[in-house]
Amino acid sequence: MALYSYKALNEEGKVVKGKISARNEQELEAKLKQSSFDLISAEELKSSGVSFFNKASLQDLILICVHLHQLEKAGVPILDSIGDLKEDSDSQTIKNVMMDVHDSLKSGKLLSVALAEHSKIFDNVFISLVAAGEKTGSFAEIFGHLEHHLKWILDIKTKIKKATMYPIFLFFLLMGVIMIMMVYVIPKLTVFLLAQNIPLPFYTKALIATSEFVVNYWYVVLCGPVIFYGLIKFLCWASLAIAYQVDAIILKLPYVGLVIRKLEISRFCHFFALTYKSGMGILECLAIAGSVVQNHVLKESIEAAKTGVSEGQKITNALKATGQFPSLVIRMFKVGENSGNLDGSLQNVNHFYDQEVNDAVNGIVSFLQPALTLVMGAILGWITISVFGPVYASFGGIK
Questions:
Q1: Across-strand partners of 17?
Q2: What is the CA radius of gyration of the chain?
Q3: Which of 98, 112, 191, 297 is 20 to 30 A off residue 15, Cα-Cα?
Q4: How far apart (Å, rounded) are the C-alpha atoms in residues 44 and 135?
């Protein structure tokens, strides 16, 4: 489908503007007619605009789930619920998407199929849960689960963003101060020291050499880390073997690796419990929960566990055989299997690791703030000693 920017007249004769996806202008005009709009003009937008347009915020998706959950509980048909979203949403993106979904439903498509046509907005988990709701006929329950799930994701992202914002600001401030010192301050002090014609200790020579390197190769200092990071990302994208090795190294990093492992396990348990509670089978739950785990080492372990379950193993034994899951997770899976309340057991694990991740992130922040301050102090101390040390030493040599 192409994306069109249009002008149209509404029922009151006022000119309205908007964007909507359609196969051609005839379909665009037909869609607008269904909304009581008369098309004045339309222009097809370039593909770069579609990518930007096709994005929706988590808040938008949460509002969709809240809306559909409440209307399903009230017994409103899904077609009418989608129609309300098409008319009343504050987001132009959601309005246009819901217009497409509404048209697809009217043509006889299932809701999961209609949503899958907008995969940039609705991910695999969202579509799979809606498909499960179609099988069980429990849309209200499914949209309630999705609402809780999206709020959980938003909460995790918000916590991490708030916790890391100040240390990131301090880091860039530190880098800015260092660059200014090396490019502007140290060269002037170097001229002063060389003019004194006094012997310079190794730490002063090291400071001067560092300053000269930054002045002559500032683009390497600024762009080098970005290029290196981009190269690693590209290699990970191009080769699963490299991505696996990089993720294995990350998991072995002191403290940071532990935090990432906890975050991934929390994500896995959350998605497994969510899909299991929605009526999916163990294999399907493992497939979906594994797809949202980002670390390739853990992702491969979940795939191995899935293979074990498909061959007849209990999920507890299959996960334990991978050697990647803590004893608490294995124990809670076993309790859930024995009690028949697997989703409840995993929700407890999820809550535990949520708190663990929160505490760990706060711990990193508590460490980074004084650490960056110490680094700044050490650099300033290095500059002070390098400049005044030789001067005082020369004074001591005067008889």
A1: 7
A2: 29
A3: 98
A4: 38
d(CA 85, CA 97): 10
Residue 273 carries which side chain, given as an amino acid letter?
A
Q: Long-range contact list for 81-90, CB < 8 A, 24+ apart?
A: 82/111, 86/35, 87/35, 89/60, 89/63
Report the distance separating Cα 170 and Cα 38, nearest Å.
54
CB atoms within 10 A of CB 173: 12
**Beta carbons of 288 and 309 less than 8 angstroms apart:** no
Phi, psi of 38 (to 5 degrees): -105, 120
Residue 289 three-state SS: helix
The set of long-range contacts for 12-18, using a CB threshold of 8 Å and a minimum separation of 24, is 15/40, 18/92, 18/95, 18/96
Cα 251 to chain centroid distance, Å, stands at: 18
pTM of the model: 0.70
H or E element at residue 7: strand 2-9
Structure tokens at 136: 């069980």
Percentage helix, strand, coil, to 5, in the chain? 75, 5, 15
